[in-house]
C-alpha cells in the first residue's frame, strides 16, 4: 500500500505567558512524532485532551507551522512549497472540525459555505459551482434547497454534515476529522460516522480521524495511533490493539470505554488522574506518574517507540507486564 502522507519527527512547541519578571513557558504540544498514512486507510489518532493530537492534525495539513520535522504529501515536502503550490495541495487535503457550531460562518448561507472552496480554487463556472453545491448538499443527506438557508437553522448533526460537504467540495483525497462527532449527541454520532464511512468508499478517500477515546473509532479505523503528552506511545492495527493493547496507557484507555454490562460500570473510572502539563512533562516515560507498572528506570529513561511485530510500543517493560486480559483489575491512581 502506498503512503499518502508521511510525518517525520514532527515537533511543535508553543510559547505561553512570560513577562517582565518571568520567562515564557515552552509547551511541548507535539514532541518528535513520526507516522505514515497509507493511501485508502482510515487511521485513528487517539488520546486525552492535551496530548497533541489536534496539533498533529493541523501540522499535517500545514494549517500550523511545525517547530521542526517534516510532512510530505505523496513525497512532496509541504515546508518547501510556496503559496501557489500549497493552495493546489489544499484541494487534496481537507479538514472537518470538531465544533460544528463555531466552525461555520453564521452570516453565510449553506450554499456559500459549501461552495466557497470551489470559488477559492477556481473550480468551474458560477453555474457549475451552484449545481455542484446542491449536489454536495444531497450527498451528505441535506436538501439542495437548503442552499439558501443559514447554519443556525440546523441541528448539530446537520451542521456537521454541512462541514463535511464543504470539506468534500474540492474533491480531496485525504480528509482529517478533528473529533468530528465529539460535540454531537451520542444518538447522532453513529449517523455522522456512517456518513463518513460511506463517503470514504464512494470517493476513495483516505481518512484520519482524531478522537479522545477508543469507543468512537473502533469500527471505522484500520489502524490506531495512541498519543500521550505529545508523544506516540503505541501504534497497531485496530483489531490487534483491541485484542491485546500493549502499552499501559492504551490498556487504561480501553478499560475506560463504557461497557454495556451495568455491573462493570465502576471500572470506567480508570483514567481519572490528571494528565500532567505538557509545559512540564514528567521525566523519563511521560506516563510514569499514572502508570501502575512504573519502576525506577521509567522515571529516568525515556522509552523509544520500538517494533513489536507489525505494531509499535514505547514502554520499557511491555513484554513482561501482566497480560492485558487482567486489565480490568488495573487501576490508574
Ligand atoms: Fe509504565 Fe514504565 Fe512502561 Fe512507562 S515505561 S508505560 S512508566 S512501565
Ligand atoms: Mg483537540
From TrEMBL:
Predominant place of localization: membrane
GO molecular function: ATP binding
Keyword list, A-Z: ATP-binding, Nucleotide-binding, Transport
Compartment(s): Cell inner membrane
Domain ABC transporter: 5-254
Membrane topology according to the record: Peripheral membrane protein
SUPFAM superfamilies linked to this entry: P-loop containing nucleoside triphosphate hydrolases
Pfam families the record matches: ABC_tran, oligo_HPY
Family indicated by similarity: Belongs to the ABC transporter superfamily.
Entries under NCBIfam families matching the protein: oligo_HPY, PRK11308.1
PANTHER family listed in its UniProt record: D,D-DIPEPTIDE TRANSPORT ATP-BINDING PROTEIN DDPF-RELATED (PTHR43776:SF7), TRANSPORT ATP-BINDING PROTEIN (PTHR43776)
Protein name as catalogued: Dipeptide ABC transporter ATP-binding protein
Organism: Alsobacter ponti
Amino acid at each position: 500500500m502506498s503512503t499518502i502522507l508521511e510525518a517525520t519527527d514532527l515537533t511543535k512547541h508553543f510559547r505561553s505567558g512570560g513577562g517582565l519578571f518571568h520567562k515564557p513557558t515552552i509547551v511541548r504540544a507535539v514532541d518528535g512524532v513520526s507516522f505514515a498514512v497509507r493511501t485508502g486507510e482510515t487511521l485513528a489518532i487517539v488520546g486525552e485532551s492535551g496530548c497533541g493530537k489536534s496539533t498533529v492534525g493541523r501540522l499535517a495539513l500545514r494549517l500550523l507551522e511545525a517547530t521542526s520535522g517534516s510532512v510530505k504529501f505523496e513525497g512532496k515536502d509541504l515546508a518547501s512549497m510556496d503559496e501557489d503550490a500549497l493552495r493546489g495541495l489544499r484541494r487534496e487535503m481537507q479538514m472537518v472540525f470538531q465544533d460544528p457550531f463555531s466552525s461555520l460562518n453564521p452570516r453565510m448561507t449553506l450554499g456559500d459555505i459549501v461552495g466557497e472552496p470551489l470559488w477559492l480554487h477556481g473550480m468551474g463556472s458560477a453555474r457549475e459551482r451552484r449545481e455542484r453545491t446542491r449536489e454536495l448538499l444531497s450527498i451528505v443527506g441535506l436538501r439542495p434547497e437548503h442552499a439558501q438557508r443559514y447554519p443556525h437553522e440546523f441541528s448539530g448533526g446537520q451542521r456537521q454534515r454541512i462541514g463535511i460537504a464543504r470539506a468534500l467540495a474540492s474533491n480531496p483525497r485525504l480528509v482529517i476529522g478533528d473529533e468530528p462527532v465529539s460535540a454531537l449527541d451520542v444518538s447522532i454520532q453513529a449517523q455522522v460516522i456512517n456518513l463518513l464511512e460511506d463517503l470514504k468508499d464512494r470517493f476513495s478517500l483516505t481518512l484520519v480521524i482524531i478522537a479522545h477515546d477508543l469507543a468512537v473509532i473502533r469500527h471505522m479505523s484500520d489502524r490506531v495511533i495512541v498519543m500521550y503528552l505529545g508523544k506516540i506511545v503505541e501504534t497497531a492495527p485496530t483489531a490487534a490493539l483491541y485484542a491485546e493493547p500493549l502499552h499501559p496507557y492504551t490498556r487504561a484507555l480501553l478499560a475506560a470505554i463504557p461497557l454495556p454490562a451495568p455491573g462493570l460500570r465502576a471500572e470506567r473510572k480508570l483514567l481519572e488522574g490528571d494528565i500532567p502539563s505538557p509545559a512540564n512533562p514528567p521525566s523519563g516515560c511521560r506516563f510514569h506518574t499514572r502508570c501502575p507498572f512504573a519502576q525506577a528506570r521509567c522515571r529516568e529513561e525515556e522509552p523509544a517507540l520500538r517494533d513489536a511485530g507489525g505494531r509499535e510500543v514505547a514502554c520499557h517493560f511491555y513484554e513482561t507486564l501482566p497480560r492485558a486480559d487482567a486489565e480490568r483489575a488495573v487501576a490508574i491512581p
